[in-house]
Every structure is written in structure tokens, then in C-alpha cells.
Amino acid sequence: MNKNVFPHPSQANEEGIVAMGGDLSVEILLSAYSQGIFPWPHEGLPILWFCPWERGILEFKNFHVPRSLRKYVNKKKWRYTWDQDFSSVIRACAIVPRVGQSGTWINDQMILSYEKFHAANYAHSLEVWEGEELIGGIYGVFVNNIFSAESMFYKKSNASKWALWQLVNHLQSLGIEWIDVQMVTPITESFGAQLISQNDFLLKLHESQKRGPIHGISKPLASR
Q1: Terminus of the chain with fewer CB atoms < 10 Å: N or C?
Q2: Does domain 9-53 match CATH 3.20.20.70?
């Protein structure tokens, strides 16, 4: 695989794999996300790069917060920050147990590479705190006006859901209208996420990329 060139996503195989190999340098990650491609490591294989034939997105016009979550959070004294502890968030996401999986795709190589991507101002995190304890969070990538949510975690019930809720609020305040969630999970579906075709996803991607630059994504948020 040429360092900064990926095949067009329409050349993906049946499993949505666009390319194999390469590394996770900032340059390659930037090239991949610019085309709607993301890495998904599998143990024992070279790095696999995906653009699935069905893609999960969350359009903010369809976003809704479950009533039970609103009632639960109203009783809590939680606060959130933006980009204040990226390393802790991605490392916590790496050890979240996942149904049907004995390991994690967020391996050491991914962690170190995305920490560099964060230092380059492309990867971001939202942290949820109870007092001084980090109890939940979410991290993702913002490239060419598109935010791709990667993973989230919680140590206390509903903290990851609240992180997603606050992420959407923050991005909406910047004029962003949707996020890429890659695959629809029960949690993201409960907030309104849906699957669309690869072609429709790429059309949305290109339409968003044609907008002028969105400012404020990297501005640290004070604790709230």
C-alpha cells in the first residue's frame, strides 16, 4: 500500500476491507479518514482498513435522549471536559469487555498512534467526571469537517451515554450536523443512529468536506 494513497472505498471486498498493511502514522490516518476509511486491527493480520458497505451514522436531526437517561443524569453531579485526558480515555476504552470478543482492537499500537494523532489535533476526547474520578468518556477523530466516533467507556452506569449526549451537544454548537459512528450498536441506535449505504455515506462525506472550515473543535472546554 502506497503511504498516502488508498484504493477508492468502492473497491472494498465483501467484508468492507479496502486495503491491508501499512502503518498508523499521522499521515496515513489522515489520508484514510479523509476518504471515509478507518483501521480495524485483527490479531495476527496486517493492519486492515475498512469502509463497510453499510455505514452507521447519527444525524443530529434524528438524535433523541432516552427519557430514562435524562431522569437518571438529573440526579447526578457529573461534569465533562474536552481534550483534557485523551490517554486515559483511549486506554479505558481498550479494556472494555465486548460481547463475543476475548480481546480488543484497541491494541498498544493503536493507542500510541492515536495519542500522536491527538497531539496533531485530529483525535479528541470528551471526559466525564464525578468529583475528581474519571467515570466515562468517548474519543473520536475529526478530519475535514467529519467527526468519527471511535469508542467509549464507563465505570459508572450511563456515564458513556452521557458522554455521547454531551459530544453531540458540543458538535452541534459548532454547526456540525452528523457524526460517523461506523457501526450501529444498541446504544447508538437508542439515540437515533442508523445504517446507510456506503455510497450514501460517501456522498454525505464529500458534501460536508465542501463546507468551509469548522472552528472550535480543538478549543479546550472548561469543566461543566
Answers
A1: C
A2: no
